[in-house]
Design brief:
The protein is 18% helix and 43% strand. The protein contains two helices and nine strands, in the order E-H-E-E-E-E-H-E-E-E-E. Strand 2 and strand 3 form a beta hairpin. By secondary structure, the chain is α+β, with helices and mostly antiparallel strands. The longest helix has 13 residues.
């Protein structure tokens, strides 16, 4: 099972790339790193450098890259963008997470 992005996330990523005037070679990197109150934290950033074991996907016109280790924890995960009042943010809907912290930025698997 691969990674996916909701329609809202696709629109928000495209808007961020446009607003920051990022060139076409910039891709969205999704990952996992140690830390956070539940043990592992999600990372999400724009990047231009591919690693030797990165997995690359094309989702609705957006190039998404994930390193091999993170992919083990993120497979099946959907990136969503949730708007609440005047603010909004990206959220990870991860079926591999056994528990998550209250703010949703870290998880355990």
């Amino acid at each position: 099972m691969a990674l996916s992005l909701s329609e809202a996330a696709v629109q928000q990523v495209k808007e961020l790339k446009r607003a920051q005037n990022l060139p076409d070679n910039v891709f969205l990197r999704m990952g996992v790193k140690g830390g956070g109150c539940s043990g592992m934290s999600y990372s999400l950033e724009f990047d231009t450098e591919m690693g030797p074991h990165d997995r690359e996907l094309e989702i609705d016109g957006i190039k998404v890259v994930c390193d091999k280790k993170s992919y083990l924890y993120l497979t099946g995960t959907m990136l969503d963008y949730v708007q609440q009042g005047l603010t909004g943010g990206f959220t990870f809907v991860n079926p591999n997470a056994k528990s998550t912290c209250g703010c949703g930025t870290s998880f355990s698997a």
